[in-house]
């Protein structure tokens, strides 16, 4: 890295912010920080929100984003391919803002946010058994079926409405 | 300053690339002519059948975009709502070459397991434009 000394500070600072955000996710009952730090990256926001909401980069580690972006032509059973330049641009943004959780038990990168310990923990209690199979929800990937403000990175309980 | 400059460039690049569905129709016709010298034109009825039916794979266009292209669609895997595909209901449809190219590439691969011919694209667009 040949970056000048001063330019590293924003990177360090964002590391601290992410660590704080991680601590907030781990705390089940504290809803104050359920608004994930909103990020702005036009290509990410546009390209990653056409078939599902643009999942926040903080929810997977960089190793996962690299694996996901490498296989976009077979993205969870659909073709989500991008032109190479846009793909590289979005990956840089994802890596720069990625979260901390490591690899699966087998040592492979986790490809699904729903398999992270954080997600499982947050969605394990008080939820009806049939929740993911309800036609109104369809899939755990459909965050905004219940988190009605997920598109604005707001996952707080104020905006949570579980449809029948 | 740099941001303003980039914004101006972006606005310029979008405005020079804005087209109408009729422009795409002309391009598809020229390509169809090249692909097949016996090309005689597009058919909205053919396009409707192409749109509604599967083509050897699991999904059709209608699986996500709804049987009625003026209606809001729902992504069959994720459940996300999709703006209607017919330009009569969504005026921004078929106005951006990069988007048109990207989505035909992805979705033809998804529905047919290959690229669409210009005839198929033109037929579908004729159908979508016939929906008022």
From TrEMBL, chain A:
N-terminal signal peptide: 1-26
InterPro entries noted in UniProt: Dihaem_cytochrome-c
Recorded superkingdom: Bacteria
Keywords: Signal
Pfam family, one: DHC
Protein name per its UniProtKB record: Diheme cytochrome c
Origin species: Candidatus Competibacter denitrificans Run_A_D11
UniProtKB/TrEMBL annotation, chain B:
Keyword terms: Heme, Iron, Metal-binding, Signal
Signal peptide per UniProt: 1-18
One Pfam short name: DUF1924
The keyword tRNA processing is assigned to this record: no
Stretches assigned to the Cytochrome c domain: 42-132
One Gene Ontology MF term: electron transfer activity
PROSITE patterns, A to Z: CYTC
Protein name as catalogued: Cytochrome c domain-containing protein
Protein source organism: Candidatus Competibacter denitrificans Run_A_D11
């Amino acid at each position: 890295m040949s970056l000048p000394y001063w330019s590293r500070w924003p990177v360090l600072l964002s590391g601290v912010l992410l660590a704080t955000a991680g601590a907030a996710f781990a705390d089940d009952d504290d809803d104050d920080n359920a608004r994930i730090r909103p990020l702005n990256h036009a290509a990410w926001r546009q390209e990653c929100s056409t078939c599902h909401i643009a999942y926040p980069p903080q929810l997977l580690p960089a190793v996962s984003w690299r694996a996901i972006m490498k296989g976009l032509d077979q993205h969870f059973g659909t073709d989500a391919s991008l032109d190479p330049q846009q793909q590289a641009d979005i990956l840089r943004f994802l890596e720069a803002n990625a979260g901390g959780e490591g690899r699966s038990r087998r040592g492979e990168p986790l490809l699904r946010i729903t398999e992270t310990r954080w997600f499982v923990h947050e969605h394990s209690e008080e939820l009806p058994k049939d929740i993911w199979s309800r036609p109104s929800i369809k899939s755990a990937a459909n965050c905004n079926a219940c988190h009605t403000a997920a598109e604005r990175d707001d996952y707080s309980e104020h905006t949570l409405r579980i449809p029948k | 300053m740099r941001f303003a400059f980039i914004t101006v460039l972006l606005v310029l690049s979008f405005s020079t690339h804005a087209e109408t569905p009729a422009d795409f129709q002309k391009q598809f016709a020229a390509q169809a002519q090249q692909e097949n010298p016996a090309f005689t034109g597009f058919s909205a009825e053919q396009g409707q059948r192409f749109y509604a039916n599967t083509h050897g794979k699991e999904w059709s266009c209608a699986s996500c975009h709804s049987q009625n292209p003026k209606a809001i669609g729902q992504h069959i895997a994720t459940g996300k709502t999709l703006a209607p595909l017919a330009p009569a209901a969504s005026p921004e449809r078929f106005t951006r070459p990069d988007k048109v190219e990207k989505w035909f590439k992805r979705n033809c691969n998804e529905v047919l397991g290959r690229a669409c011919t210009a005839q198929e694209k033109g037929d579908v667009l004729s159908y979508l434009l016939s929906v008022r």
